[in-house]
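Morning run. Coffee first, then this:
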Amino acid sequence: MNAALLVILFFLGLCIWLGLQARKGKEMNMEQWSVGGRGFGSLLMFFLLAGEMFTTYTFLGASGGSYRSGMPPALYAFNCFYFVIAYWLLPPIWKYAKENKVISQSDFYEKKYNSQALGILVAIISVVAVIPYLVMQLKGLGIIVSEASYGSISPHMAIVVAVIAVTVYVTVSGMHGAAWTAIIKDILILGVMVFMGFYFPFHYYGGIEPMFEAIDTAKSGFLLFPEQGLSISWFVSATIMTALAFYMFPHMMAGIFSAKSGKSLRINAGVMPIYQIIIVFSLIIGFSGVLQVPDLKGPDTDLALFKMAKLSFDPWFVGVIGAAGAMAALIPSSLVLTAVSTILSKNIYKAWKPNTTDQQMARMAKRFVPMIALVTLFFTFNGGESILTLYLMSYSFMVQLFP
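And here it is:
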C-alpha cells in the first residue's frame, strides 16, 4: 500500500468519524436531521455553503475545462453573479421557511403557492436534476482516488467505498454530519489549490504571465473566445443560467433553511466572492498543464490537475491532494442525499400517505438515502459524460424553477 493511498484512507476515516460524531447530544427528529434544527450561525454556514459550492468541479471540471478549451470555460467558471442574487433573495426565503416550518425545497413551493401538485412537480424535477449532479461528484471522486492512489484502487471501487461511507453518516447524522465534515474539507481544499496554483506556473514557466505568453505562442487563439461554439454568447447565457439556477438546487435550499438568521446568509453572500478565488487557482492549474502534459484527450482532460501533481510531487503529497479532492465530492454528495431523501419523504411519500407522522417521515427519509445512492451508482457506471457537461446538464434542469 503506497503512501498516497494511506493518506486518502486516513482522511476518509476522519470524515466518517466526524459525520457520526455530529449527531451526539441531538434528538434526530425530522427538522434536526434535514435542516440542522435551523441553528447554524455565520461561521458554520460559511463552511456548509462553501462545501456545497466547491465540489469535484472545482478540482477537475474547472481545471479540465481550461486545459481542454482555453479561456471560455475559464471565464465562465468564475461567476460571482450567484452572490448578488443570494444577498437579496435568500433572507426572505429563509424567513418564510422558518415561519412556515419548511424543511425541503418542494415544501417551500407547496406552501408558498398553496399547491400540493406544484410541490410534487418540483420534487420530481429536483430528483431528476440532481442525479447528473451526484453522478458528476461520484465520477470525479473515482477519478481523483484512482489517480491519487497511483492506480492502487480502481475508480469503480473508490466510488463504491465512498458511497457506502457517505450513506452511513448521512443516515445517522443528516445535515449535521455534512456541516461537520465540510469544515475540514474547506480548509484542506483551500490550502491545496492555492499552493498548486502558485507552484505550477512559477516552477515550470517562471511566473503566471510567462505561462500565458508561452501558451499563446504555442497555441495561437487558445486564450480567445471563438466565433462559434464556446463563443461570447455561450459565455453570457451559460453564466446567467447557472447563476439563476444555483440556489434552486434542493441541497442549496436545505442549506439556506439551516441558517440561524437571515443576517448570517447576507454575511456569507458578501464573503463568498472572496472565497471563490479558489476557482482562479484551479483554472491556472489547468492552464499550467497545457504545455507540460499536452497529450490528454476527451474525458482524460479532466485529469490535467492530477497529471501535473504526479509529475511534480512525492506520493504522500499527491495523497493529500487526492484526499482534498475526494472530500470535495463527499460533502456535496452528503448534502444532496439529505435534501433529496427529505423531499421524497415529505413531499412524495407523505402526499401518498397523508397520515404519516413526523417520526415515520424521519424513518422513511433515512431509508431513502441508500436507495438514492444505489440509483446514482447505476447511472455513474453507465455514462461517459465529462465533468463540465454533467455540471451544465444539471443546472439546465434546475433553472426551470427560477421564474
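The longest helix spans residues 315-352. Good start to the day.
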